[in-house]
Amino acid sequence: MMSKHENQREVTQTININDIVPYNHIIRKIDKAIDLTFIYDKVAHLYSNGGTKSMIA
What we know:
mainly alpha, about 0% strand
């Protein structure tokens, strides 16, 4: 991504979801109870095998 502020381009941050979502949060129970892996096959046709194409004017 292009940035007007040069110093912003050098900032990276790693986020661990376990540090953000509390262990007693309902989303953790939902994640354990429901298998949503089938979605990857359903939406695979929407994604490029070679990454996102550039937008060139």
